[in-house]
Amino acid sequence: MSQLLDDDQRIIEFDVRTDEMLVNMGPQHPSTHGVLRLVLRTDGEIVSEMEPHIGYLHRCAEKIGENLTARQWIPYTDRMDYLAAMNMNLGWSLAVEKLLRYEVSEKARHLRVLIAELNRIASHLVGMGAYGLDLGTFSPFLYAFREREKILDLFEEACGARLTYSYITVGGLTADLPPGWLERCEQFLDQFEPVIREYHTLLTTNAIFVKRTAGIGVLSPEMAIDYGCTGPVLRGSGVDIDLRRDGESIYTAMYDGYAFEVAVMKDGHYPRDHEYPAVPTDAVLGDCWHRFFVRMLEVVQSMDLVRQAIDRYSQCKGPLGEPLKLAEKLPAGDAYLETECPKGQMGFYLVSEGAAIPWRVRARSSSFSNLAVAPELCRGCLIADVPAVVGSLDIVMGEIDR
Amino acid sequence: MQGSDFVGQLEAAVPGAVVGQTMEAIDPWLEIAPEKLLETCRWLKESCGIKFDGLQCITAVDWCEPDPKKAAKVSWEPHTELVYHLWSTASRASLVLKTKLPRWQNDEPGQIPEVASVTSVWRGADWHEREVYDLSGVNFVGHPDLRRILCPEDWEGYPLRKDYVMPLEYHGMRGR
């Protein structure tokens, strides 16, 4: 013991045994991202066990899906990940189109990329702003929402809704863009690009932020895969997977001809086609900081993709095409498709026995699997680190509880 | 990647596991005997050439007893089907396993069917199996902590079964 004491001063502190205490965090705790309840078993300041309790937002979306036609279920997918509703619409539409073996027009394809990537920026902005809130800094949230507001304005112009769009639908999109929209979108991008540097000063390189996130909640790539973690959580651990590049052909075909590099650390480097701040020395691959940083890189990546999509979309001469009928008959069979949503890989599975209404609808939520790993990450950390870990997973309860 | 070669390897490694296969479907799938499921999954993750190290999703599909009027048109026998979507993070190959369970164990209504849990193969299966247990009523034998996950702990019935009747009241709260 005396040897240990000499080596590590903290041992003294940790050696004082206190009674275990159960601490309830949530269901409406500001740093739990929605209605999530965490039960912490604590020994002093140390969390020995953490158990998430979910289901507070369960709305039986899958059961409802068994009573509606495939297109009628689109508004319910909006309410899963309500911060990236366009991506949810897209995932479900593609899964249904996979079953129908249907291909949308070239123009619709580029418009889908444009809209989905724009929504990815909006989602990552909330992820970033809310993460700042979790760690006790308020201003990044305001900066993030200022820019997100402009994206929502653009969406509102395109489809009339600010949060639950139902814009992308089975067989295409509900409407074409209004005149002048592309210019306004380009204006936004020009305005947005320099702001990213502000975000990096506010959070990414902020000394306090780095102290709170670097080396905290380290997720090994093996554990991430074992738990089915996906998206920025998986890439933050250094696993080079992005379904936009590696997914099924029906999904990757959408990104055919688009140039982008997957935001993941390769050989100790992140892709460097932009000015990014350096990785802090305390940060370990797979910690909270890296998960956050991957999202910041994806904001830049999505911005590039939106620019490319604007180019391609404006060059398309053909018509956008009409979406499929509301009660389009589905062939008997089943289809499963995962798409790369901002939070991770969102999977939709539908089983049909030949009617317009699917027999079974299933949504595989990325946040669900990402949250499942949180107890492992929180074991042995400080209570104050719990919001840092949970926030870095960037979960949305609407999607977990469905 | 799925081909007779792969199925042959699986049959050699786990005899009697494959009881059916449909290769011409949109997502080709293998039907696995429920009692061989755990062994098959372990082989797929640990020993097979393409290591299926990721479990994407577990789904239960309830093929219920059909309405007597429609029974003649219906092509299925009543059963609960479990669908496992697996993938390999290295090769990005995916695989679909299906297994058929009775709707009720020993045909006694109220006795939920049993199948081996795959939490020992993929730790991520934990929550997925809890969800299937909660909503579709399948007992995963060997699961470390099989409790309801989305519904309240005292909820009765399995909402995603086709014959589920929604309760009109829950703890004094009127449903409709």
Task: Please specify the SSE layout and strand pairing.
The complex is a heterodimer of chains A (402) and B (176).
Chain A: H1 2-7, H2 10-15, E1 20-25, E2 37-43, E3 46-53, H3 61-65, H4 74-78, H5 85-100, H6 106-134, H7 139-159, E4 168-169, E5 172-173, H8 181-204, H9 207-213, H10 221-226, H11 232-236, H12 243-246, H13 249-252, H14 288-315, E6 333-341, E7 344-352, E8 360-364, H15 366-372, H16 374-378, H17 385-392, H18 397-401
Antiparallel strand pairs in A: 1-2, 2-3, 4-5, 6-7, 7-8
Helix pairs in contact in A: 5-6, 6-7, 6-14, 6-17, 7-8, 8-14
Chain B: H1 4-13, E1 18-22, E2 29-32, H2 37-46, E3 54-63, E4 79-87, E5 94-101, E6 114-116, H3 125-136, E7 139-141, E8 169-170, E9 173-174
Parallel strand pairs in B: 2-5, 6-7
Antiparallel strand pairs in B: 1-2, 3-4, 4-5, 8-9
Query: Can you tell me the CATH architecture of chain A?
Result: Orthogonal Bundle
Strand order of the largest sheet of chain B: 1-2-5-4-3
Query: Which runs of chain B of at least 5 residues are low in confidence (pLDDT < 50)?
Result: none
Q: Determine the CATH superfamily of chain B.
A: NADH:ubiquinone oxidoreductase Nqo5 subunit
Would you mind describing this structure in some detail?
The complex is a heterodimer of chains A (402) and B (176). Chain A is an alpha+beta fold and 402 residues long. In chain A, 48% of the residues lie in helices and 12% in strands. In chain A, α7 packs antiparallel against α8. Chain B has a single domain, classed as NADH:ubiquinone oxidoreductase Nqo5 subunit (Beta Polymerase, domain 2, 2-Layer Sandwich), CATH 3.30.460. In chain B, the strands form 3 sheets. A 5-stranded mixed sheet of chain B has the order 1-2-5-4-3. In chain B, β4 (79-87) and β5 (94-101) form a beta hairpin. In chain B, 36% of the residues are buried. The interface between A and B is large, with 41 and 33 residues.
Key words describing this protein structure:
heterodimer; A: 402 residues; alpha+beta; Cytochrome-c3 Hydrogenase, chain B; 3-stranded antiparallel sheet; 18 helices; 8 strands; 48% helix; globular; B: 176 residues; alpha/beta; Beta Polymerase, domain 2; two-stranded parallel ribbon; 3 helices; 9 strands
